[in-house]
């Protein structure tokens, strides 16, 4: 039954996440434009862009690039299915990390110096945020007694009341996960990187379209992680989670438009320091209570 639930959840996530992720990306562009004093594109502009990419002639350096990108998308969808079907949070973390590794391999497979630099920076980003993500899973296990996401809905109060420091740590590394400034070292959605665009420099057409869809799915999953901190066994649980997600997403857009890009050394050191202080201290306190 658990396997069947996961398969059904993965299928539903594969259908819904691209739609929700596309709307979030469109909302991101509109809010960013208003912050910059512009009108901005229509809400469905991300969909128009991806549709245009799929209409272009397929051109790639080698065939394996598209295979790696397809695998990255597949594992991103699987991670979302595991999470939203109430499955194992730790497994979800491992699967989404595997998706990132396939994406990195896709960039390396092109043998382009620009793409390889982007892949190296993407690897640094994974190494920066991964400790905090793992500590998040451990913290939820301490609070609920299980790695299952569904166990959070049996809590008498939101998990953020107990693991607030862990939430702040996840909030910090979320900027890296969402590829927002100041931590958009490997790939940025802003115009200043469109000529040499980091990890996707050699990707075009439908392959690049799959990358965009993968990012939409990832964003929905990461927002789900945020919402998990605010659910409990009460009737207003989901409403509170949605409000928290909306506030956090707006905060990430504000940060993206108000902070300049930093060097990778600062990103790496600060992410590990936050994981040690926020995640480590909170877990240590729970362990001795």
UniProtKB/TrEMBL annotation:
The chain crosses the membrane at residues 67-84, 89-108, 132-153, 160-178, 222-251, 271-288. It is a multi-pass membrane protein. It comes from the Bacteria. InterPro entries: ComplexI_Subunit1 (IPR052561), NADH_UbQ_OxRdtase_su1/FPO (IPR001694). Coiled coil: none annotated. It is found in: Membrane. The keyword Membrane applies. GO terms for cellular component: plasma membrane. This is NADH-quinone oxidoreductase subunit H.
């Amino acid at each position: 039954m658990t396997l069947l639930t996961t398969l059904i959840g993965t299928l539903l996530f594969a259908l819904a996440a691209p739609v929700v992720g596309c709307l979030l990306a469109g909302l991101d562009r509109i809010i960013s434009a208003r912050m910059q004093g512009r009108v901005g594109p229509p809400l469905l502009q991300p969909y128009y862009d991806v549709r245009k990419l799929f209409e272009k002639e397929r051109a790639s350096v080698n065939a394996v690039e598209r295979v790696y990108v397809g695998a990255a998308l597949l594992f991103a969808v699987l991670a979302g299915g595991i999470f939203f079907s109430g499955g194992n949070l730790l497994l979800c973390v491992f699967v989404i990390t595997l998706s990132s590794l396939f994406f990195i391999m896709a960039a390396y497979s092109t043998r382009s110096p620009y793409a390889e630099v982007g892949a190296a920076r993407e690897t640094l980003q994974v190494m920066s945020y991964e400790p905090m993500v793992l500590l998040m899973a451990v913290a939820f296990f301490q609070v609920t007694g299980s790695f299952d996401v569904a166990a959070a809905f049996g809590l008498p109060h939101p998990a953020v009341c107990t693991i607030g420091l862990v939430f702040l740590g996840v909030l910090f590394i979320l900027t890296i996960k969402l590829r927002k400034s100041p931590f958009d070292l490997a790939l940025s959605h802003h115009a200043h990187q469109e000529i040499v665009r980091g990890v996707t420099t050699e990707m075009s057409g439908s392959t690049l379209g799959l990358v965009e869809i993968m990012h939409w799915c990832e964003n929905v999953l990461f927002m789900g992680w945020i919402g998990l901190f605010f659910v409990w066994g009460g009737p207003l649980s989901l409403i509170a989670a949605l409000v928290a997600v909306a506030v956090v997403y707006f905060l990430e857009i504000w940060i993206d438009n108000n902070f300049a890009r930093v060097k990778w050394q600062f990103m790496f050191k600060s992410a590990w320091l936050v994981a040690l202080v926020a995640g480590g201290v909170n877990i240590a306190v729970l362990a001795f209570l």
